[in-house]
Hints:
Layout: H1 20-47, H2 51-56, H3 69-75, H4 78-106, H5 117-129, H6 134-143, H7 161-173, H8 176-184, H9 189-197, H10 202-218, H11 221-226, H12 235-254, H13 260-297
Amino acid sequence: MTTVQAAKPMNIKKEKIWTGPQIILGIVIIACSLVCLLPFVNVIAVSFSSKSAILRGDVGFFPVEFTTLAYQAIFNDGSMMHALWYTVGITVTYTAIAMVLTILMAYPLTKKRLKGRKFFNLMALFTMYFSGGTIPIYLNIKELGLLNNAWSLIIPGALSTYNMIILKSFFAALPESLEEAATIDGANDFQILLQIYLPLSLASLATLTLFYAVGKWNSFQDALYYITDRSLQPLQLKLYNLIKGSQAVDVAMMEGGASAVATSVSESIESATIIFATLPILVVYPFVQRYFVSGVTIGAVKG
């Protein structure tokens, strides 16, 4: 009696066939990525290039006559290092306060039992489209005695309506049965928020934390309006003043009042300062990047 052995299925790997539209889309994505990346690469190259190479215009996407003098000048500058740590402190404090306020506003607005919920939602949305204006806000800060005060960089923008709506939508998308079960077990609103909602919202919380931190780290206009004391100026304002001073050197050079060497030195230090100010965010971003897409889109299922 003969036995028939079952044929083993062969693992056939299907080769992915690129169609014309996919190839075009890939080329467009690569081109857009290079447009965003290459200027940053040029700034890095300039920051590591010598004065003579910058003066000759030889620097492209690779350093010419490699040197670290610009970075040595920055790290030896006490005011620059003070501005770095001062900005870190401002960013951390602002982000913590902003997240607490955002959570405490988003959570109640998801509850139908909250009296006046529609009114509060309307007032929050109103601030997204209408503002008192720069001058009234400045006068308000002045009357509160916050000029030349670190709190003027924290309190005025401590709550973003846009971020609050993202978190509110995420909270609203969570199953109501979780809250009902916790209520039956005797949990109050704060316990439900801390033990149920927040642990399930880590992706959204990480994303909003990144939004707040990057926004505050890159901002300088509020410091430009409210801060005149040099010891209270954040890093981005020092960078702004450095670029502004570099532009003044360029104008003076055109009028014959400055040398080309001075211009090349300012350009090198300017590029090094840009990298110096950008690097902390680039270091932090990879740790929250995996939460970014899900944190923004997961709350969009239910409004």
